[in-house]
C-alpha cells in the first residue's frame, strides 16, 4: 500500500513544482511590464484584433462577444470612477474636493490602470479560448445584441459623465501639468561656471 501512495505523490510533486515555477515566472514578467504602458496596451490591441478576426472568420460566438463587451464596460466604469464615491460613502477625508477652498487631493481610481489592462487582456484571452468550443456558439441575431450594447454604453457613459460634472473630477491626466522637479545636472553645471 505504501508503494501506491508514493507513486501518486511522486507524480504530483513535479506538477506542483512546475505550476509554482510557471506562476513565479509569469509574475516576474508581469511585474517587469508595469512601467511599459504603451507596449502593454499595444499588446492588448493585438490580442483584441486576433479575437475579432477569429469571431469574424468563424461567423459566430456573438453571445461571447456581447458578454465580453459588457465586462469591458463594467471595467471602464471602475476605471473612470473615484475610489471614494462622494455619493455613496461617508466622507472620511479621502473624498474629492467639491469647493474651491477645499484642499487638493489627487484623483485615485477605483480600478487602477494596471489592473484595468490586465483584466481586459485576460478577458480577451478567455473569450478567444471560448471560441474553440461549440457549446458557447449560441445562435443569436447579432444586430439586436449590438444595438442593445450600444444603448447600454451610451446610457452608462451619460450617467458617468453627469457624475463627473456633478462632483467636478476628471479621471484622465491628458493635458494636466506635470512637475518633474529641478534639473540637477543643469543646476550643477550653472554652479560650476560661477
TrEMBL record:
Subcellular location field: Membrane
TM stretches of this protein: 60-80, 116-134, 140-157
InterPro entries documented for this protein: Rer1
Topology versus the membrane: Multi-pass membrane protein
Signal peptide: none
GO CC annotation: endoplasmic reticulum; Golgi membrane
One Pfam family in the UniProt entry: Rer1
Keywords: Membrane, Transmembrane, Transmembrane helix
GO biological process, one term: retrograde vesicle-mediated transport, Golgi to endoplasmic reticulum
Top-rank taxon, per record: Eukaryota
Family designation: Belongs to the RER1 family.
Reported function: Involved in the retrieval of endoplasmic reticulum membrane proteins from the early Golgi compartment.
Protein name, as recorded: Protein RER1
